[in-house]
Design goal:
Length: 145
């Protein structure tokens, strides 16, 4: 093996993708049963924690590209999950607010989501999960190249 090449199984992007899929296999069935995509759930969780938010902030915090978020929000508005309106102080800012239906749905799903975390912790341990989250925080804060 060429020492300048990393074997495929050590490639960070691929490993992170596979780890994400392993984790999402716990959550995806819950979201599917409630008619939500993973991206919609990320939006609803943010709105549950923060109330109304600017669309740009949602895109950044949820890890969704702004053009993709536009389509997601259109579908969420159609499904009575969010309201969208322009900020009075700056018409360029799009504000997103959860509907009462979305708030009720989120409250039904959060305990199920917490159960998923508990199931993961039975295999991975709470301490390892906390360590992993701390390492991911560091990884997210790498300086830009």
């Amino acid at each position: 093996m060429d020492p300048t090449q990393r074997p495929y199984q050590y490639q960070l992007p691929q490993r992170l993708l596979r780890a994400r899929e392993a984790v999402m296999s716990y959550f995806r069935p819950v979201l599917t049963r409630h008619g939500l995509s993973e991206q919609q759930w990320r939006v609803l969780r943010l709105l549950a924690e923060r109330g109304e938010m600017e669309a740009g902030d949602i895109a950044q915090r949820a890890g969704i590209h702004p053009p993709s978020l536009s389509g997601i929000l259109t579908r969420m508005e159609r499904d009575d999950l969010v309201y969208r309106h322009r900020a009075r102080s700056d018409n360029r800012r799009l504000i997103v607010t959860p509907t009462p239906h979305a708030k009720a749905l989120t409250q039904r799903i959060i305990p199920l989501s917490n159960d998923c975390y508990r199931r993961i912790e039975t295999h991975f341990s709470p301490a390892k999960l906390q360590t992993l989250l701390a390492l991911l925080d560091e990884l997210e804060n790498l300086p830009a190249p």
